Amino acid sequence: MFIVLLHYLQPLAVVEKHLAEHRKYLDRHFSLGHFVTSGPQVPRIGGVILARGLSRPELDGVLAEDPFYREKVAQYQVIEFEPNRFAEGVQAALLGKLAA
Fold first, then answer.
1. Comparing C-alpha atoms, which of 85, 79, 3 is closest to residue 41?
2. What is residue 99's predicted lDDT score, i.e. its pLDDT?
3. Residue 11, preceding bond cis, omega within 30 degrees?
4. How much is the pLDDT for 100?
5. How many CA atoms lie within 13 A of 27 on its CB side?
6. For the chain: N or C, fewer Cβ within 10 A?
Protein backbone atom coordinates (compact mmCIF):
# COMPACT_ATOMS: atom_id res chain seq x y z
CA MET A 1 0.00 0.00 0.00
CA PHE A 2 1.21 3.51 -0.72
CA ILE A 3 0.65 7.02 0.53
CA VAL A 4 1.27 9.47 -2.30
CA LEU A 5 1.89 13.06 -1.26
CA LEU A 6 1.48 15.64 -4.00
CA HIS A 7 3.26 18.96 -3.55
CA TYR A 8 2.19 21.78 -5.86
CA LEU A 9 4.95 23.37 -7.90
CA GLN A 10 2.69 26.03 -9.41
CA PRO A 11 0.33 28.67 -7.97
CA LEU A 12 -3.25 27.59 -7.24
CA ALA A 13 -4.48 29.43 -10.34
CA VAL A 14 -2.43 27.02 -12.48
CA VAL A 15 -3.53 24.03 -10.37
CA GLU A 16 -7.18 25.00 -10.93
CA LYS A 17 -6.69 25.02 -14.72
CA HIS A 18 -5.80 21.32 -14.62
CA LEU A 19 -8.13 20.21 -11.81
CA ALA A 20 -11.00 18.86 -13.96
CA GLU A 21 -8.63 16.63 -15.95
CA HIS A 22 -6.89 15.54 -12.73
CA ARG A 23 -10.25 14.55 -11.24
CA LYS A 24 -11.04 12.43 -14.32
CA TYR A 25 -7.69 10.72 -13.85
CA LEU A 26 -8.56 10.05 -10.17
CA ASP A 27 -12.01 8.71 -11.12
CA ARG A 28 -10.45 6.27 -13.62
CA HIS A 29 -8.08 4.86 -11.01
CA PHE A 30 -10.75 4.70 -8.31
CA SER A 31 -12.88 2.64 -10.71
CA LEU A 32 -9.90 0.32 -11.38
CA GLY A 33 -9.48 -0.17 -7.62
CA HIS A 34 -6.04 1.43 -7.48
CA PHE A 35 -7.00 4.38 -5.27
CA VAL A 36 -8.69 4.08 -1.88
CA THR A 37 -9.07 7.74 -0.97
CA SER A 38 -7.73 11.13 -2.04
CA GLY A 39 -8.06 14.77 -1.17
CA PRO A 40 -6.33 18.11 -0.75
CA GLN A 41 -3.83 18.83 1.99
CA VAL A 42 -4.79 21.47 4.56
CA PRO A 43 -3.54 24.08 3.94
CA ARG A 44 -3.89 23.53 0.20
CA ILE A 45 -0.25 23.00 -0.74
CA GLY A 46 -0.88 19.69 -2.50
CA GLY A 47 -2.87 16.51 -2.12
CA VAL A 48 -2.82 12.96 -0.77
CA ILE A 49 -3.71 9.66 -2.46
CA LEU A 50 -3.90 6.27 -0.74
CA ALA A 51 -3.15 3.58 -3.34
CA ARG A 52 -3.30 -0.23 -3.17
CA GLY A 53 -2.89 -3.35 -5.26
CA LEU A 54 0.01 -2.07 -7.36
CA SER A 55 3.74 -2.69 -7.35
CA ARG A 56 5.94 0.38 -7.09
CA PRO A 57 6.78 0.32 -10.83
CA GLU A 58 3.06 0.01 -11.64
CA LEU A 59 2.26 2.93 -9.34
CA ASP A 60 4.98 5.02 -10.97
CA GLY A 61 3.33 4.35 -14.34
CA VAL A 62 -0.08 5.34 -12.97
CA LEU A 63 1.30 8.56 -11.48
CA ALA A 64 2.96 9.43 -14.80
CA GLU A 65 -0.55 9.53 -16.33
CA ASP A 66 -1.66 12.31 -13.96
CA PRO A 67 -2.18 15.63 -15.74
CA PHE A 68 -0.58 17.33 -12.72
CA TYR A 69 2.57 15.32 -13.45
CA ARG A 70 2.49 15.83 -17.23
CA GLU A 71 2.01 19.58 -16.89
CA LYS A 72 4.59 19.89 -14.07
CA VAL A 73 1.94 21.19 -11.67
CA ALA A 74 2.95 18.82 -8.84
CA GLN A 75 5.74 16.57 -7.68
CA TYR A 76 5.19 13.32 -5.82
CA GLN A 77 6.53 11.72 -2.67
CA VAL A 78 5.63 8.03 -2.42
CA ILE A 79 5.65 6.21 0.91
CA GLU A 80 5.18 2.44 0.85
CA PHE A 81 3.87 0.75 3.98
CA GLU A 82 2.31 -2.49 5.14
CA PRO A 83 -0.84 -1.81 7.17
CA ASN A 84 -1.19 -4.16 10.14
CA ARG A 85 -3.55 -2.34 12.51
CA PHE A 86 -7.02 -1.16 11.62
CA ALA A 87 -10.03 0.53 13.13
CA GLU A 88 -12.98 -1.82 13.48
CA GLY A 89 -14.46 -2.69 10.08
CA VAL A 90 -11.75 -1.01 8.04
CA GLN A 91 -9.56 -4.04 7.30
CA ALA A 92 -12.20 -5.89 5.29
CA ALA A 93 -13.17 -2.76 3.39
CA LEU A 94 -9.58 -1.76 2.69
CA LEU A 95 -7.87 -5.08 2.06
CA GLY A 96 -10.80 -7.18 0.89
CA LYS A 97 -10.49 -5.96 -2.66
CA LEU A 98 -6.75 -6.66 -2.71
CA ALA A 99 -7.46 -10.35 -3.04
CA ALA A 100 -9.79 -9.74 -6.00
1. 3
2. 42
3. no
4. 39
5. 6
6. C
Task: Please tell me the CATH code under which domain 2-98 is placed.
Answer: 3.30.70.1060
Per-residue model confidence as pLDDT tens digits over 30-40: 999 999 999 99
Q: Show the low-confidence residues of the chain (pLDDT under 50).
A: 98-100
From 18, 35, 24, 6, select the one nearest 97 (Cα to Cα): 35
Contact 77, 5 (CB under 8 A): yes
Domain ranges of the chain: 2-98
> Rounded to whole angstroms, how far apart are CA atoms 11 and 38?
20
What DSSP line would sit under 38-87, residue for residue? Answer: EEE-SSSSEEEEEE-S--HHHHHHHHHT-HHHHTTSEEEEEEE-------
